[in-house]
Specification:
two-stranded antiparallel ribbon; disordered N terminus; single chain; TIM Barrel
Length: about 475
Amino acid sequence: MKKNYISKIVGTSVPLSALTTKTEPQRPGSFSAGLTLIDWLEKTHQKAWQLLPLHETQLEPNSATQHVSSPYKSYGIGLDPRFISETLSKPNQTDLNQFYNSQQDWLNDYALFCALRDFFGADNWTEWETPLRTRDKETLIKWQKKLAHQVEKHRQEQGRLHYQYSLIRNRARQREILLVGDLAFYLPVNSPLVWVNQHLFNLTQVSGLPNGPRAHFGRQIWGHPLYLWQKTERQKQIIELFKLRLTYLAGLFDWVRLDHAKGFYFYGAMNLTDPAKDKVKIGPGSKALKPILDHCRKISLKIFAEDSGDKLKGLRKTLTEYKIPGIRIFRYSLMTIKQPGIHPRYARVAKYPKNCLATSTTHDTETLMGYLNKLTMKQCQQLALQVKTEVGPDRQVFAQRIRQAIIDSPAFISLIPVQDWLLTTGRINVPGTETESNDPNWRYQLKIPVEELPIKPILTAMT
């Protein structure tokens, strides 16, 4: 008998960029592959797909064409041109005009930024000529005219991208499948949103996480400019920038994850030359987060928040007040070697709160099989107690039992990374290992086209 998942959402987490389809085998991550994945989700009775960010990323240093791999170094708005499918239809002029009219808050500045990037061979606008860097009005008008053809090309390209994405959105709605997106907390300096709103950022310090006893991945330098939260007169404008991005995402997704949500309360200010001078600073807290959550309610955008790590009391208080789901990540059930044992927040999968999103692993961790293969038998036995099962001699069978426990947990959404459905070890990202050029992270690709994804094992888990 099929389990009653009417009030339960089970889905898959996989970046669009990891997918290929038989119709376009040479174009990984095309929207055509996304449409095919929707079909697979329906066949396996799943109800959600977490895509992760879809924006174009910044250029690598000293490169005019090569973009960095991390979607968390993205422009923060718009869609990445690499997702265009040559097999899908194109928008007509009426479609384009409707798109232009609905996206006036960002599109024109975005298109001009991309045209200037192409002209100068660099998107680091801090190195452009001074009048452009400071956005002198007469200079902007001059360049708008000079690059009119290129600006229009980028406008049309975004129109085509959003039209093709709407085919995915519409098919997902028809199949009653939710699309889950991601709001990166920070923006890179090489972003049109930072260029336009540079007065809201501290361009002399960068984001990251200082090392400490609770730093699971150690010290991390992310490299984004910091928000000028300390200038109280600009806080409202920073909040409006968050609202702009969320309004845009509401046109793409049903649910959005607030990445690094504790950054509203505490955030790292990293010293590039001396780690001893890294600082943890206090953010605006609920004074900023509450109006952002109010805005999400107003535009009917569902939100859940990354609430892992330390210094979370203030964040969780606000999330509880607004009934915003947090997350439960099974990968973190075991504490570190310095803190052996089971983490109380992630213990007893059967006791997860209903108002949370549960997942086996994330894009930042090993896959479930990769993790289990690292553990001793004693550690596996500790995990087995949390899912009321036995380890057994076969780690794949153990992984299946863990996966099933997460699916059956009280959490109203369970998202399983595609690698954990397939019981493979291919990892997406290793935090703290990013390189400026040729970064090996965020290059994960499925080894089979979407059409060959298995159906029976997932159906078995859902029945």
